[in-house]
Amino acid sequence: MNLRDKLRNLLVRLYARRVEGHLDHAQVPKHIGVIMDGNRRWAKAAGSTTAQGHRAGADKVEEFLGWCSETDVEVVTLWLLSTDNFDRPQEELGPLLDIIEDVVRTLAADGRWRVHHVGTMDLLPQQIQTALKEAEGATADNTGILVNVAIGYGGRQEIADAVRSMLFEAQQRGTSLAELAESVDIDMIGRHLYTGAQPDPDLVIRTSGEQRLSGFMLWQSAHSEYYFCDVFWPAFRKVDFLRALRDYAARHRRFGG
Fold first, then answer.
1. Residue 113: what are its φ and ψ, rounded to 5°?
2. CA 13 to CA 81: how far, in whole Å?
3. Catalytically active residues, by annotation
4. Partner of 78 at 20 to 30 A CA spacing, among 13, 31, 179, 237?
């Protein structure tokens, strides 16, 4: 690292400390959703392979959770793999699935987080299903941040699964369709989502400069604040995270008003 890079890094760290020092912890979001975008473009810009880009993105996860643990964040939802990602070429999808399995096992082994899967389990290879079930069981009693790992996740699929779950539950109770139709409300649907009784995300962060949700937590993010960052996910820094929190704290949430 040359002198210019060292000086730049020093200035960024000093600026991050300044931002952190002015952060109002009473205004920190309780639930943060993250669309971790830009792994492939980061790899291309760095002259690396796509797999190396996904690995760099995976390595960022624990660092990000460490930043969250320094605040009052209680729940983090990380979008690791969408249902649309299964359309990618096998030469990319195979290594990506291996990397995601490593992420799940690493989070479980850390000992700080509670791991919870959100997504369609049936779409995933058996070894990832096993890793997720083992991670949820091993971390159930942990007291740290609840980490939702969104793997095989799609917002529309989640709502469809919630409706299907309601229908099955009604059938098991002997409830008629007419009776179910009369009783369906927002809270009932919410209870059948992957996130169940969890609070909705207060803040959704998307990296890489894209300004869309792409189906992420469609139901839960109805009143969320959004923060779009131009930085690719593997290059996301603590100062970028703190800027997102500062921007969130400066907003006046109207909850649809």
1. -105, 155
2. 31
3. 37, 85
4. 13
Q: Phi-psi region for residue 174, left (φ > 0), alpha (ψ -120 to 50) or beta?
A: left
Closest by CA position to 105, among listed 76, 77, 136: 136
Angle between helices 126-139 and 90-110 (to 10 degrees): 20
Nearest alpha carbon to residue 32 among 232, 242, 250 = 242
Per-residue pLDDT reduced to its tens digit, 52-99:
999 999 999 999 999 999 998 999 999 999 999 999 999 999 999 999
- Structural domain boundaries of the chain? 3-249
- DSSP SS3 for 162: helix
CA angle 72-138-28, nearest 5°? 10
The identity of residue 234, as a single letter, is: P
**Rounded CA separation 108/73 (Å):** 19
Block residue for tokens 């002997």: 174
Where helices occur in 111-237 by DSSP H, the ranges are 126-139, 155-173, 177-183, 186-191
Which tokens in the block code for residue 101?
């399995």
Tokens of 246: 């500062």
* pLDDT tens, residue by residue, 205-228: 999 999 999 999 999 999 999 999
Fold of 3-249: Undecaprenyl pyrophosphate synthetase (3.40.1180)
Q: How many CB atoms lie within 10 A of CB 6?
A: 10
CA nearest neighbour of 191 among 168, 162, 220, 219: 162
If you search the block for the tokens 């690719």, which residue do you land on? 232
